[in-house]
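Q: Convert this sequence to structure tokens.
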Amino acid sequence: MLAVKSKTDQVNMAMIVTSLFLFIISSSYAYASQSTITEAEGYACMGEDRSRRQTEQAALEAAKRNAIEFASTYMTSETHIKDFELEKDLVSAYANATVKIIKELEKSWYKDANAGDCFRIKIKVEVIPDEKAMDKVSKRNDVVDNPSAPLHVRLWTDKKEYERGDRMRIYIKGNKPFYASVIYMDAAGKMVQILPNPYRNDNYFQGGTIYEIPSGKDRFDLEISPPFGEENITVYASTSPLGEIDLHSQGGVYFVKTKASDIGARTRGIKLTGKSTGKSSYASEFYENNAEVKTRSAK
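A:
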């Protein structure tokens, strides 16, 4: 369990630059996921061989295909590293992407003068590229810290295992500017949002900078206490502002009221902003990373 203990004094350091050695020996990723969130429309008409239900399904599948196509175009246009192999890997990753519907925005039946009864649907989706292909991209030395590459956010702690009374330090670093929230789940399943928090409200971070938690305006320490076991830290990051979850302010942190199973979907309810690729649609890069730590009583 992580006991979040309030501080009486403010720490003046807002961020730190940690040595590369510390990062290499301490980072431990249990999960990482890069994706693109966008909106897409799909259309289909009944004709002679489709029922209304089949037409609605055909329109939905068309919207999904359009989302994948747009996300692929968006990512390749936003990635300014001129490398044939990288472009090939990105195209391959999105060619085999899957689509998760975040929200149905609009849907309606209408009459077409030539095709008859037709159906239109507009959806907000997360386009998830092929994991193996994206893993290959993320391991390239010219990608991890390059602001011209897809969004990549590292998450690590100062140690992998902690004993009672230890104080934990958490670090995040992105390759480009990003919005983020960091949530800690202790061994008992209780969750707190440690960044942003009541005293450090800003959730916009510069790329290329290592941020430490706690530090700066934070009014808490992360002290290890029972029950002990496997504990989890997750960073949700995007190039656009994240969707909101239900929080309750207590001391120097926010306690999470949203169910753990709903947090991922809620954070992905982002407000789409940024550059378009010549169309009316917009997209945002999303990145989720997870680190696991173990806590135990003193030997």
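The two ends are 17 Å apart (CA to CA).
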